[in-house]
Structures are given as C-alpha cells and as structure tokens.
Amino acid sequence: MALDLVFVTGMSGAGRTTALKIMEDLGFFCVDNLPIPLIGKFVQLTREGEEGKIHRVAMGIDIRSGDDLPELQPIFEELRQEGVLCRILFLDADDRTLIKRYKETRRKHPLAGQGRIEGGLEQEREKLRFLKESADYILDTSQLLTRELRAELERIFVEQEDFRSLMISVLSFGFKYGIPADSDLVFDVRFLPNPYYVTEIREFTGKEAPIRDFVMKYEECRQFVDKLVDLIRFLIPYYIREGKNQLILSIGCTGGRHRSVVLAEELYRRLSDGKEYGIRIEHRDMDKR
Question: What is the maximum alpha-carbon separation in the chain?
Fold first, then answer.
C-alpha cells in the first residue's frame, strides 16, 4: 500500500496543533515539527518498516523550521516521484483573528521578537507563501469551531469527498450591536415588517415557527430571498476562481433576534445543496435581550 503523507502547515495560531490531534483521531500517525532535512529519512524508514503498520502519516510543519523551509519544495517533488501520495493541508485565518488568539493565550509570535504581532504575521505570510500556493487544501479557520474543523477534515480524509475550497458563513446580527467587522457582504433587512411590535410573538426567536411564519408571509420578503440567493449563486464561482477561502454573508435587523435570523436560516437552507463550497450558520445576537 502506498504511503499517504499529509503535510499540515499554515499560519501560527490558525489551528495546526488542533488539526494534528484530529488527524491522529482519524487514524494518521502524527509527527510534529520534524527537522526538514530528516523528512526523507523518516519516510524511508516508515516505508521499510513492517508492511501495513504505518501507511497514513500527518506531518506538522510550521515557521519554526526557519531557513530550511525552502527545502520542502524539492522534497515534495521527490516524494511524489517515489510514489508517495503527498498532499499539503494549509490552515489560515485573518490577521485580526490570529492577533486575538495570540493575545488570549499570551504567547509571542515566533517572528515578532520584541516587536508587534502584526509584524511577525506579515513576515510569516511571506515565508509561507509558496506552501499556500502549492497547497492541495486551504482551510480558513477564522470562523470555524473545533467541531466544524473536525467535520471538514473527516469529509476530506475519511469520506474522500471532493475538496471545497470556499467556506460560506451565513451570519445574522443586530445593527444595534454593530456590524460584524469581518463581513464580506452585508444585507439590511430592517425594511421588512418587524414582529417585535406584535406582543403575542415578541418573545420567540427567528428559529421558531411564529416568527418565521410572520416574516415569510410577506411577498417582499420572499422576493428578497429569491433575489439574494440568485446573487450569491452568481458570485460564488467568481470568488472560488479568485482563490477566496472564506465568505461571510451578514444579514442584519435591529436587534438580531427576529427578521435577520429568519432570513439567515432561509438563505442557509437554500444554499446547503452546493457541492463546490462548504456552508455554516451563526446567529450572533439572537439570545441577546
């Protein structure tokens, strides 16, 4: 059986360690931060070992490899010529998310030194550019929960489904709490009749039938959803062609409990059959009073 070797790499703070733990749960033999000059020897010993003992390996590579990183490209080519199924999983996240994660853990970026985290991230992106450009799979973890990352890795490496490079996040929110800073497209649905002013159903949320029925009974709402779905379906192939990995569609109403939730749920439902992208939904302000 040919050796299946997945290099797990990407930006520091994007979830490489978490991904390796998940890969281990999926049956991969995991090695983290092996010196690059030793990769060839490791693969040789693995292939010469007891037949069938180790045939799936996930190898973590990050910026700590330093000046040896450029040596990876010829190693990839050589391994593939030797019949190794060699793939690259690149984990990424936007700078805002990475900075937030660093501050939460109080860790220093390996390239920042005594400077700011932003400077370290800029250097790291440049040094890892060739890996991202060569990657077979790019996952943007800016909005992904651990369970969602696990589901994506299971789909790719266990279920062997075609990789969908674009992850769409449908996000409902309330304008009174501010527009989500990481939105790509923002849609304002405050033009729709507001169920908040109907006392009998005010306490329900947009995920419940009384609010959903109230909002969707209006012709302008149904027309809006139809046109919005058409617009998003039109845009998706161009975003994929551009190489975009994360698309955040934010739908807002006044408080984020009623109209925006209904529209986000309907958009999510209609887009869920897409084969060329992944999709998730989040209601940021639904439980706020």
Answer: 73
The span from the CA of 65 to the CA of 179, in Å, is 39
CB–CB of 258/205 below 8 Å?
Answer: yes
pLDDT > 70 in the chain, percent: 96
Map tokens 């169920």 to a residue: 195
Q: How far apart are CA 247 and CA 169, in angstroms?
A: 6
DSSP the chain: ---EEEEEEESTTSSHHHHHHHHHHTT-EEEES--GGGHHHHHHHHHHSSTTT--EEEEE--GGGGGGGGGHHHHHHHHHHTT-EEEEEEEE--HHHHHHHHHHHTPPPTTTTTS-HHHHHHHHHHHTHHHHHH-SEEEE-SS--HHHHHHHHHHHHTS-PPP--EEEEEEEEEGGG---TT-SEEEE-TTS--GGG-GGGTTS-TTSHHHHHHHHTSHHHHHHHHHHHHHHHHHHHHHHHHT--EEEEEEEESSSSSHHHHHHHHHHHHHTT-SSEEEEEEESSTT--
pTM of model > 0.85: no
Overall average pLDDT of the 171-185 stretch: 94
What's the CATH code, domain 4-163?
Answer: 3.40.50.300
Residue 66 has pLDDT above 60, yes or no: yes
Domain ranges of the chain: 4-163, 167-283
Q: Which amino acid is at 228?
A: L
Residue 127 and residue 114: Cα distance in Å, rounded?
A: 19
Question: Which pLDDT belongs to residue 245?
Answer: 80
Q: At what angle do helices 39-48 and 72-81 cross, to 10 degrees?
A: 20
